[in-house]
Every structure is written in C-alpha cells, then in structure tokens.
Amino acid sequence: MKNPLQRWWPKTLYAKTSATLAATTLLFLLLTLITIGYLIVVPVAKRSADDLAALMMVSAQTWAELPPQTRPDFELELKLNHGLTLAKASSPLTHEVTRLLPYTRFLQDSLIQRSNQKITIHSTISADGTRWFWTDIPVNKRVVRFGFTLARLGPQPPLAALIVFALGAALVLLTALLLVRRLTRPLARFAKAADEIGRGVTPKPLPETGPVELLQLSRTFNHMALQVQELLADRTTMLSGIAHDLRTPLARLGLTLEMLRPQADTQLIAETTQDIQEMEHLISQYLQLGQELTGDRPETIDIRDIIDRCVIDARRMGTDIDWIPDEPCLFTLQPLVLTRILANLLQNAVRYSDGTGVAVEVRRTPESCVIKVLDRGPGIPEAERESVFRPFYRMEPSRNSCTGGSGLGLAIARQLAQFHGWRLSLIARPGGGTEAHIEIPSCTSLD
C-alpha cells in the first residue's frame, strides 16, 4: 500500500522544485519571525507594558490624593496626553475577562506585580465598534477605574509580523515559481522533442536561446535530432538495397530450381522452394519494419470499418472471431497503418489460440478509442510482455516456423503505433489468454 504522503507529494520537476523552495522559504520566514519576536518584539512589549502599568499606578495614586474639584482637569489631561480614561469605580466590572493579547497580558502581570493585588483586564465593544479595555486598581481604600482603546497600544507587532510574513512569502514564492518555470519549460520541450524522436518523427528545432548551458544543450540536441533523422533515412535506403540485392538472386534461384525440377529429387526441390519463399517473407517483413512508418495519408474514417475488413480477412482462414460493432468511432488517421497493426495482432491471436476464443472489441471514451484483440491462448508471462515487442524475439527459441512466426509482427505493430502516438500493450486476459490493447488518443479524432 502506498504511503498517503506519497499520493499528495508532487511528481513533476516543476512541482517538486516549487514545493521545496516554498517549504524552505516558509520555514525560514517562520524561524525569522520567531527569532525577532523572542529577542526584540517581546522585550519591547514588556517594557512598554511596564511603562503603562507604572503610569496607571502613579495616575491612580495622584488622582486619589487630588482635591475633588481638580480631578476633572487631571482626568482630561490624562485622556488627551496619554489616551487613558480615568474615573472612580462605582460598581465592580461585570464584563467578561478578555482573552488577553500578549501586550495586555504583560500589562496585567505588571499591574499585579506593582500593586500586590489581583487585577484583571476586561474588554467591551462600544456602540461605534471600538474595542475598550477596562481594569480597576485599588488605591487608598478607593478603586480607580482605567479604560483605554486598542489604538492606545500604538504599534501592533503581531499584525506587522503577520503582514511581513504574508508579503515575504508571496513575493518569494512568486519569484521561485517564475524561476523554476523558466528552468523547467526548456526541459519540457526537450522531453517532448525526445519523445518525437523515439517515435521516428523529426521534431521542430529547439530555440537556441537562454542561459549558456541551455543554449549549448539546445544546439547539441538539434544536431543530434538531425543525425538521427539522417540515420533513419540511411536505414531505409540500406533496406531498399537489401531488398534489391537479395530478391534478385532469390529469383534466379527459384528459376534454377524450376529448370532442375525434372532431373532433381522432387522432395529436395520442394524443400528448397519453401526455404526461398520463407526468405522472401522474412525480407518483406523486415522491410515493413523500416519502410511502413510513414504509410498513407490521414483520412477521417470510422474505425469499425477497418476492424470489419480485418476480421473478414481473418475469418477467411476458417477462424471464428467474435466481433460486434458498437457506436460509431470517427477518427482521423492512416487506415493502412491501423490495418497493418490489427492484421498482425489477429494473426498472432489465431496462431496461438488454435483459432478459438478470438474476439475483437472497441470502446470509445472522451480521451481515446481503445481496441482490444483477445485470445484464449497460453498467454504471455508478465516478465516477457515487453520483450515480445523486440524485433526477432520469440518466446519459443527453436526458430521453427511451425511453432511461431518470425518475431517481427509485434515489433512492426509497436513501432507503427509509437510513430503515430498510439499505445500498444499486452495484458493477461481474465480466464486465460492475452489481451492486446491499442489506445488511440482523441487528439487524432474528428470531434
């Protein structure tokens, strides 16, 4: 079972690099804020709270000792110059004890320490939405009540830290995303171009711009792509030469055998003729592997029609093939290419299942069209399901044509599929046998 963390962990280079930079940046900002808060903000807040507590204690003592007629002037001066509201407490505070901010907690602790009495800070919300803090301070057998607003606290370090953290994180993350995108976009182009080369398609030249390293890499890749295309062209030319050079002497050998037929051993002549025919068949299949990649021109066609023709041809060999057309499946593709792939797959299915249990299915999805060729043969071990796509690979190593083909049918089918961006795979069929899947993406369909 997969770790749940692996399911959510980014998989692309862009996402992984961005996530790493984001996590590192956020951790750095968090540690920075903790350090600044512990070494600077908290000491400054404690000192400011202690100063306000001292002012409140002195003001309470002074107010209690002043004559009643001078107290209003003192209260007005305290309110204008220090933002404190002072009055005699006529009744106990009934408001809820506030969930103290760090500053008000420091203030409460300082008041308790200076007065040696239990003092609590309460809060209320006025009619205009202003938040007030209230506390009663006992002095000279009187209780003096102080009130101040949140604005009296002046600077708000927690809010400032939060804003700095948010802005810093957004700026750094945006820069990281742009930087990573700038680095990964050329890599994505390289990957796409390499995939096209793997399918035998000549990619468009990569732009030779950017940093020196990417510039050099683009030039090298473009040169390599050109060399690969030249090699493919040379291969086709070489195979054409092989066909010309081998088929001519084979034709002369066939003619010689016909001339010797009345005089030579009939059995020997028949065996030699069969060998020549097998050689010509091998040459034809090998040429298909190198020359049938371009195929015919794309056409808009119902895939069911192609399957119909292939199934009819296979049934002529006396094989019962289960095939029931489903809903229309219009795609723009090269009919001869799909016909060649289906013919090879049907030929294998008939050969290895003794002509029983062979079926063809087609299913259209929003993303693709999936064609299945199913048989009830002995099946293919999982370890060899990719090996059978290699040219001339055979699970039966005797190379006897009676026990298998030449080993080129699946290789031709896979290369044709890859060249056109299709996917060909083999899986085990439930109940025994093999399922061959051809998946044609909808990007080639007529929608």
Task: Tag the structure with descriptive keywords.
single chain, 447 residues, Beta-Lactamase, Helix Hairpins, Heat Shock Protein 90, 3 domains, 5-stranded mixed beta sheet, 4-stranded antiparallel beta sheet, 11 strands, rod-shaped, transmembrane
Structural account:
By secondary structure, this protein is of the alpha+beta class. The chain has 3 domains: 4-159, Beta-Lactamase; 199-291, Helix Hairpins (Orthogonal Bundle); 296-444, Heat Shock Protein 90. The chain is 54% helix and 15% strand. It contains 10 helices and 11 strands. Strands 6-8-9-11-10 form a 5-stranded mixed β-sheet. A hairpin with a 5-residue loop joins strand 2 (122-125) and strand 3. It is rod-shaped and about 150 Å long. It is a multi-pass membrane protein. Residues 181-233 form the HAMP domain.
Concise structural overview:
The protein is 54% helix and 15% strand.
Low-confidence runs of at least 5 consecutive residues: 398-403
CATH hierarchy, class of the largest domain:
Alpha Beta
Strand order of the largest sheet: 6-8-9-11-10
State the end-to-end CA separation. Answer: 39 Å
The proportion of residues in beta strands is 5-15%
The second-level CATH architecture of the largest domain is: 2-Layer Sandwich
The total count of strands amounts to 11
Number of helices: 10
Tertiary shape = rod-shaped
- Provide the structure class: alpha+beta
Helical percent range?
40-55%
CATH topology label of the largest domain: Beta-Lactamase
What value does the Rg take, in angstroms? Answer: 43 Å
Secondary-structure element pattern, one letter each:
HHHEHEEEHHHEHEEHEEHEE
Q: Calculate the mean pLDDT score and round it.
A: 77
Number of domains: 3
Largest sheet: 5 strands, mixed
The CATH H-level homologous superfamily of the largest domain: Sensor histidine kinase RisS, periplasmic domain
Membrane topology: Multi-pass membrane protein
Subcellular location: Cell inner membrane
Pfam family, one: HisKA
Domain Histidine kinase: 241-444
